[in-house]
């Protein structure tokens, strides 16, 4: 089977590429196809991130094993497309070059039989010109009240007991030390 993806640069302008790739290819093959479709040199590291239907980032799948124990972490080459993307799970996030943070929304648009005589992967359609620099990223927390769970009822006056004397002898912890 052939997977047809729309790969969209996460930016204000409409910049995307439609690509076709065999379902038995790996995420590393998809990575290489995206690199070529958008004109990158392929010298930077990259990762895919699984996500939910609302594009909320989940697990990282990196290009290289970055774990503490060699071989412990699975990489893009270990994931066959049809095992990770299918009709019920169509979305994945792709980040190229962690300095520039080129971020792409990758969505499986169709699963079709192979066409005899066609070679895959293939660039099917290209829309929009790539900017010279990656769009600025805003890292906002999902919940606007993120910090509220860490708030307490203390204010600066409550911490006056620590002013001046740096001795902790009055707190009675000596018997707990060896």
Description:
By secondary structure, the protein is mainly beta. Helices cover 9% and strands 28% of the residues. The protein contains 2 helices and 7 strands, in the order E-E-H-E-E-H-E-E-E. The protein has a 7-stranded antiparallel sheet with strand order 4-3-5-6-1-2-7, with helices on one face. A hairpin with a 5-residue loop joins strand 5 and strand 6. The longest helix has 12 residues. The chain is elongated and about 80 Å long. The model has no long low-confidence stretch (mean pLDDT 84).
Q: What percent strand?
A: 25-35%
Shape: elongated
Quaternary state of this entry equals single chain
Strand arrangement across the biggest beta sheet? 4-3-5-6-1-2-7
Distance between the termini: 68 Å
Structural class: mainly beta
Q: Show unreliable segments.
A: none
For the sheet with most strands, the description reads: 7 strands, antiparallel
Write the element-wise H/E pattern from the N-terminal end onward. EEHEEHEEE
Question: In percent, how helical is the residue content?
Answer: under 10%
Question: Mean pLDDT across all residues, rounded?
Answer: 84
Gyration radius from CA atoms, angstroms: 24 Å
Number of contiguous helices: 2
Task: Quickly describe the structure.
The chain contains 2 helices and 7 strands. The protein is mainly beta.
How is the topology of this model organized?
Blueprint (H helix, E strand, L loop, with lengths): L1 E8 L6 E7 L4 H12 L7 E6 L5 E6 L18 H4 L6 E6 L5 E11 L9 E6 L51
Antiparallel strand pairs: 1-2, 1-6, 2-7, 3-4, 3-5, 5-6
């Amino acid at each position: 089977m052939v997977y047809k993806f729309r790969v969209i640069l996460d930016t204000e302008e409409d910049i995307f590429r439609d690509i076709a790739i065999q379902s038995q290819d790996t995420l590393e093959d998809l990575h290489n196809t995206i690199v070529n479709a958008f004109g990158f040199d392929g010298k930077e590291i990259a990762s895919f991130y699984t996500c939910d239907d609302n594009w909320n980032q989940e697990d990282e799948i990196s290009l290289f094993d970055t774990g503490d124990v060699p071989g412990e972490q699975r990489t893009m080459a270990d994931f066959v497309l049809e095992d990770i993307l299918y009709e019920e799970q169509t979305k994945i996030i792709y980040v190229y070059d962690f300095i520039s943070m080129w971020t792409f929304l990758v969505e499986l648009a169709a699963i079709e039989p192979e066409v005899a005589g066609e070679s895959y992967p293939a660039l099917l359609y290209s829309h929009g010109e790539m900017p010279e620099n990656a769009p600025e990223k805003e890292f906002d927390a999902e919940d606007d009240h993120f910090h509220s769970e860490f708030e307490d009822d203390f204010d600066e006056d409550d911490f006056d007991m620590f002013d001046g004397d740096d001795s902790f002898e009055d707190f009675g912890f000596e018997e707990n030390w060896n």
